[in-house]
Amino acid sequence: MSDQNDPMAEIRASFFIECEELLEALQDGLQELDDGSEDPETINVVFRAVHSIKGGAGAFGLEALVRFAHRYETVMDEVRNGNMHPDSEAMKLFFLAADHVSDLVRACRDEAPLPEETSKELLARLDELLGEQGIEEEEEASADDFQPLGVAFSLDLPDMDAGPETGRYTIRFKPEQELFATGNEPQMLLKNLCALGEAQVNCVTTDLPDLDGLAPETTYIEWLIDLETEAAEPEIRDIFEFVDGLCMLEVTGGPDGPTPKGEGTPDDTPPVETAAPDPVTPDATPAPEPEAAAKPDKVVEMKRGPAENSKDGGDAEPRKAAAPAPKSVVRVDLERIERLVNLVGELVINQAMLSQSLDEAGLSPHSDAMNGLEEFQRLTRDIQDSVMMIRAQPVKSLFQRMSRIVRESSAAVEKEVRLLTEGEATEVDKTVIERLSDPLTHMIRNSVDHGLETPDERAAAGKPKAGTVTLTAAHRSGRVIIEIADDGAGINREKVFQVAVKKGLVAPDAQLSDTEIDNLLFLPGFSTASQVSSLSGRGVGMDVVKTSIQSLGGRISITSEKGKGTTFSISLPLTLAVLDGMVVNVAGETLVLPLNVVVETLSLGADDVQMLRPGSYVVRVRGGFVPLYDLGVMLGYRSQRKTDAGAIVLLISLEDGNRAALVIDGIQDQRQVVIKGLDDSFYRAPGIAAATILGDGQIALILDPADIIAGVGNPRGGDFMLSERKIANE
Amino acid sequence: MSDQAQTNDLELLTFRVADQEYSLDIMSVREIRGWTRTTPMPHAPDFMRGVINLRGTVLPVMDLARRLNLASQETNDRNVIIVVKLQGTLTGLLVDAVSDIVAITEDDLQIPPDISSEPHMSVVRALTVIDDRMIRVLDLAAVVPTTSDEAA
């Protein structure tokens, strides 16, 4: 077994992946119960999730996890049997226990030290909850009795509620060449199959040619297995999960199946194909099947009971135990997808290079080459979209993690907090989701700790004692918007201002608008505030949040209303890999602007530009005034020109409603660009979000329009933000 | 480094910057590339030449002459970019030309005299003499700025 790629580690890894899913189901179920669901199925889901984790953990000898899950399961069983009605206290405990299970799973996975203390405490609390009614039962089924017997689980889990029923299956299994090429061994599969019950394995060698005609790399052999088992069909198929698509597999028969032993597939049962027909021996047609089955040339018998097999075949079993109902999804290593994404990125760059050189060759736009190129571009784009879609994931798992943060932080500051989530199904690129976790955690803590008042204060203000934090995700114009809103007291602007003055961040006599004061929270200096509580203060570390959001190509803004609450809005690109961009020229440099902010292009007349005050200009567009910025000047490429008349201007508009007109020298193209991160470990260029590689191999910078509007032209400390925004607001 | 310390051997890549001779521990050098046009970064410190495309990744390039407060010279085709790796981060150093690779022992290194009036002396880790020429050994960590000292 060691000569293979350590199957145990692989199985273990897949157990932990399944645990993640089960934990998600557990959280969902608990949430539904908490929301007042009376559906017995919900309790069943919770129970089964815990049970499955326990089962898998047992097989791997993760005793701490088994012990805890077992007690948890016992309690849930009481609930399921109607012996216990969970009140809100119990629900809280259930949530805590679920968090703890996920901690244990993680600790086991990372082989980190287990949180024994919490285990003990929660176990005691669970026992308390059980009281007398459960304790006896608890004794007889104590965790010590629970032996890590891999094979045992496979039989009771997927159909727990239905009693075991013996069925007879006929399994036809023909490996394709690829099965061997990927290092799989049919013998292992057959052994595992035999472990499910009484099996008779026949090897069909009718296709086997004489030694002269034998092509060593071609597969000729197929197996017919008669299996009498209590397992259900999905379990049988699970055995072949690793070779899905690498073999021809038919499973017929079942609990009531009258399939006679030794016979081929009955004609009335449609054969199920899991693989493309073998090109060498196209036996996808049903015709040769009965024939091949009826008169096998040589018969190899492999008859083994489960006991004999438990030693070597057994370790493949427990993974099935934890398997959820079959879904038509493929689990793929993220690395493989990353590789694909990178390759597609290279493809896009190459396509840009090709189209540039074809362009320069001066071919007629109607030539075959150009038509072909167009098709190529379309295909590239489709491929890119599809690849991106693979990585898209709903934000649900992220939001679930946040509900845990709310539970923990509200307990720490002794406030009652309810988390509402909306738009859990909103899909965002996996990398974005992962990197959102930290900033969101921080902001949720902020909302709970500083956004919400204490219960007494709330009662005094005529609000319900329990505060509410709302977490929302939605798609808006090619970006994802995530909002964290609390119904607390709102930002205490006087206090914020005073703190900022004390820190020397603003002059004491500065006149700041409400928005400007709110934005003070994001200043780096503000984070050194002394008011650090057991969690984190609002403003404490918000600059870090802002930086991490910016590094994702996102923006964050605050709105706050006194007495009503505070809302943080994060706007993020859907993916970190590609961008629809407008390629423009500025002072001899090539720059890329995100296409979604560009509203229109204008050519400036001499009368269009008005001076607002020395150094700042506005342009009149459709009856309104929009601040005018010369990109070349703002980015320091050139000094102010005498006149902007005749210049080309891009009118851009951001989600927050801010508009600006950017003076550029020329527009090159609209195209998809592959985003390459800038290593800003020692220098972060203001106004620049990322870079991309052009068709000629040169690098072009991708602009961050919001940053530009916020005043890139004056990149000195935090105050530039305020002074420039003033212009934008006027 | 430890096995080098045993034999006391040190290999240096020597190069010229503004007609001065400098060197770097060859272990920190990843590759040497010919000069290509850099894309300037807005409002960057003046020693930042910009970024170039290094096989698909964006590589920041620093003008070593300006970084060392030496007279910066016009770039020409013979200029090279030395790609160095420091704590997992790649940086390009623009130099006039690469001269040689020399092997010396630790004993050949001399601690530079403490001359506070020379602003870039702190980036020189040691001095050595090769063929009667003085070669400065750069302290890469001091040359390549980190977030703490150069953040905008």
Write the layout of secondary structure elements.
The complex is a heterodimer of chains A (730) and B (152).
Chain A: H1 7-34, H2 40-59, H3 63-80, H4 88-109, H5 116-140, H6 150-156, E1 167-175, H7 177-181, H8 186-194, E2 197-204, E3 222-229, H9 233-239, E4 247-254, H10 288-294, H11 306-309, H12 318-321, H13 334-360, H14 368-391, E5 392-394, H15 396-413, E6 417-422, E7 427-429, H16 430-451, H17 455-460, E8 467-476, E9 479-486, H18 493-502, H19 514-520, H20 542-551, E10 555-561, E11 565-573, E12 578-586, E13 589-594, E14 598-603, E15 609-613, E16 616-621, E17 624-630, H21 631-634, E18 648-653, E19 659-664, E20 666-674, E21 688-693, E22 699-703, H22 705-709, H23 719-729
Parallel strand pairs in A: 6-8, 13-22, 17-19
Antiparallel strand pairs in A: 1-3, 1-4, 2-3, 5-7, 8-9, 9-11, 10-11, 12-13, 12-20, 14-18, 15-16, 16-17, 18-19, 21-22
Helix pairs in contact in A: 1-2, 1-4, 2-3, 3-4, 3-5, 4-5, 13-14, 15-16, 16-20, 18-19
Chain B: H1 2-7, E1 9-17, E2 20-25, E3 29-34, E4 48-54, E5 57-63, H2 64-67, E6 80-86, E7 89-95, E8 97-105, E9 124-130, E10 133-138, H3 140-143, H4 147-150
Parallel strand pairs in B: 2-10, 5-7
Antiparallel strand pairs in B: 1-2, 1-8, 3-6, 4-5, 6-7, 9-10
